[in-house]
């Protein structure tokens, strides 16, 4: 990844690799752009450049800029909204264990997301940042694009909307319902994230952003497939979530749920609740079977269906 992409991705400064291909001017322009939204990150990048004695011909600008940022601290890290670019690549094959990227697929797939990256929960929702389960679901979507072709897709608990945005970018399903239980998140953050990715939603758009509180709000009856990422984090929600999945299965054959395994008891409880309601649940992908992955916690994708198929 070149340095500009690394900066867009907000890669931790200790891990930044400064390539010689990017000119200082390119780097400088990028830093000035990021400074508008995340001055603290720029301060840390400049400090790293100084520590590594890079760009020796341009130290005046680097030092001057660093000095102007000396007073910037990360005290507002929990409320700061940043714009993060996530990069995805197609894998070479569809194997469960191979994670080799297809370097010949030179098309760079990226999704930009406004989010509060340091936030775990606010205003009663965990949807203001992107969670690892959604990154794995994005990878899965890329490897299985055909599943979504000409389909009506429903995403539950979409949070920042990253999975639906990626899906719209690579496959453009017939219709996509992008939903979350938090109406403020839907009307503000979700709308902004679609705009940030230049995905237009006019009146005839196939993209429908709406509030859908599990087992309370109406499920669209024309859906073909359901997706959801990191919506299995709280066992007290399983009854309503699983009732909602059961209702979805009266309209469509499968739900694909990507779950981070933080606690085996919670995972077991999700599995047993689906079974209790007469649904089949099958593990179809998991990160800890892969030869290598950048994701930290194990993530599993479950295929949930009504009858054995
Ligand atoms: C951990 S976040 C995951 C967000 C996103 N899918 C991701 O992986 O980045 C869980 C999401 O589920 C939503 N949620 C929680 N309870 C819900 C409910 N009862 N009905 C609908 N959405 C709910 C939250 O608002 C939040 O956006």
Q: What key attributes describe this structure?
A:
309 residues, alpha/beta, Rossmann fold, 2 domains, seven-stranded mixed beta sheet, two-stranded antiparallel ribbon, 9 helices, 32% helix, binds S-adenosylmethionine, SAM-dependent_MTases_sf, Methyltransf_16, S-adenosylmethionine-dependent methyltransferase activity, transferase, FAM86 N-terminal domain-containing protein
Mean pLDDT: 88
Spatial strand order of the main sheet: 5-4-3-6-7-9-8
Order of helices and strands: HHHHEEHEHEHEEHEHEE
Text of the CATH class of the largest domain? Alpha Beta
Largest sheet: 7 strands, mixed
Helix content: 25-40%
What is the oligomeric state here? single chain
User: Can you count the beta strands?
Assistant: 9
Name the ligand types: S-adenosylmethionine
Separation, N- and C-terminal Cα atoms: 41 Å
Label the CATH architecture of the largest domain.
3-Layer(aba) Sandwich
Provide a quick synopsis of the model.
With 309 residues, the chain is α/β, with parallel strands linked by helices. Helices cover 32% and strands 18% of the residues. Helix 2 (24-35) packs antiparallel against helix 3 and helix 8 packs across helix 9 (264-276).
């Amino acid at each position: 990844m070149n340095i500009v992409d690394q900066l867009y991705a907000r890669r931790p400064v200790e891990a930044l690799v400064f390539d010689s291909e990017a000119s200082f001017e390119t780097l400088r322009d990028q830093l000035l752009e990021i400074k508008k939204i995340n001055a603290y990150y720029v301060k840390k990048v400049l400090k790293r450049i100084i520590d590594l004695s890079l760009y020796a011909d341009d130290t005046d600008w680097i030092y001057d800029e660093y000095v102007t940022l000396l007073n910037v601290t990360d005290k507002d890290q929990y409320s700061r909204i940043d714009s993060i670019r996530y990069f995805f690549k197609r894998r070479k094959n569809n194997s469960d264990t191979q994670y080799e990227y297809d370097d010949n697929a030179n098309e760079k797939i990226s999704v930009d997301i406004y989010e509060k990256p340091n936030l775990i929960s606010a205003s009663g929702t965990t949807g203001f940042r992107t969670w690892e389960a959604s990154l794995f679901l994005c990878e899965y979507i890329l490897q299985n694009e055909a599943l979504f072709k000409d389909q009506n897709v429903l995403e539950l608990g979409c949070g920042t909307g990253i999975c639906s945005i990626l899906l719209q970018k690579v496959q453009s399903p017939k219709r996509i319902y992008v939903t979350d239980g938090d109406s403020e998140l839907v009307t503000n953050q979700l709308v902004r994230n679609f705009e940030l990715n230049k995905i237009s939603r006019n009146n005839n758009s196939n993209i429908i952003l709406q509030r859908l509180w599990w087992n309370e709000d109406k499920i669209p009856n024309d859906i073909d497939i359901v997706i959801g990422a990191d919506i299995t984090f709280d066992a007290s929600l399983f009854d309503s979530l699983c009732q909602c999945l059961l209702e979805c299965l009266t309209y469509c054959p499968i739900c694909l749920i990507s779950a981070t395994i933080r606690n085996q008891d919670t995972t077991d409880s999700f599995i047993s609740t689906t079974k209790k309601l007469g649904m089949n649940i099958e593990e179809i992908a998991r990160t800890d079977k892969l030869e290598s992955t950048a994701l930290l916690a194990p993530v599993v994708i479950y295929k949930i269906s009504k009858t054995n198929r």
